[in-house]
Amino acid sequence: MPKVTGLEGVVAAETNIGLVDGEKGHLVYRGYWAKDLALGYDFEAVAYLLLNGTLPNESELDSFTKALSSNRELPAHVKAIIDLLPAEMEMMSVIRTAISSMGDSFTQWPPTIDQAIRIISILPTIIAYRYHQTANTAFVAPNPSLGHVANYLYMLTGKEPNTAHVRALNAYFILTMEHGMNAGTFAARTIISTQSEIASAISGAVGAMKGPLHGGAPSEVIQMLNEIGDISNAEAWMRDVLSSGGRLMGFGHRVYKTRDPRAVALREVTSHLIGEDPWFNFAFEVENTAIRLLEEYKPGRRLYTNVEFYAAAVLSAVEMPTELFTATFTASRVVGWTSHLLEQVAINRIFRPQSIYTGEMPE
């Protein structure tokens, strides 16, 4: 009997939230191309779409934006718990602990959209609070006049962020909100299917994201770009790596066998920002050289730019600390997770897959 591992290719649920088609390079959110949403909408509108199934009208968007803004404050007991955590505890573990500590606020089952909004709103505040605590700097309270993405940058820096940086990070957040039945989404849907509360389901998803095979941050891409240093060094540096059998970070994807639509959209967004931040121009040139060399060294392998490459460019440009990369990814993906939880409870049946016993039988 063939070995069965990883559930790869096994259909576990029906969903109308998102479509990922790696062969065609398609990423769809609720009937819209994710690329178009990233280029034409703000975080709030796309989060509303994933949670509710339709893009909001002006009144709905205003109400939703206000709901996100009004739910950013951390409860005193969550601050106290974070204050007591060991300094060496990594950010993803802190997020998991903080969300778990809010379980009493989310005991209602089935979970509601108000609970989803609360978790989406508060996650960036958890990250910012812990970041300032470990940096021995003063916590910057949420600014209710700023949108979700701009406020996240504001809480980290204490300064109203550059408009170009907000646009780029907004696109990143939208393009990483949802990505089908990934490990985090599957973990969350499995937990909520037992009629556990939403805090437990999101904590489980955070635990999955914490693993480097799922939530691996684009820090290796940044390391590569830093080692290249200047576009004049790019070809020689990459030829040396490829000749020795090494990998170019940020190229190729397990799912996408054509251009990663998230990378395409981020490239288009950042192309408008070249004059405003030289980092993007450098990234563009490195990408062009890498694609040409990959086709030369590995013809027919279909190794294109993936989302991590442009995520690295965006996160570096906005001066996001590397230790916050996976946490920032989580602050985006929580929109997809909560959308899937709301969908799961509407048609709930507990996840109970079978396994094949490969051990010995008693005599």
TrEMBL record:
Coiled coil feature spans: none
UniProt cross-references to SUPFAM superfamilies, sorted A to Z: Citrate synthase
InterPro entries: Citrate_synth-like_lrg_a-sub, Citrate_synth-like_sm_a-sub, Citrate_synthase, Citrate_synthase_AS, Citrate_synthase_bac-typ, Citrate_synthase_sf
Pathway, per record: Carbohydrate metabolism; tricarboxylic acid cycle
Listed GO MF terms: citrate synthase activity
GO CC annotation terms, alphabetical: cytosol
Entry's Gene Ontology BP terms: carbohydrate metabolic process; tricarboxylic acid cycle
Keywords: Transferase
Stated family: Belongs to the citrate synthase family.
Protein name, per record: Citrate synthase
Originating organism: Paenibacillus albiflavus
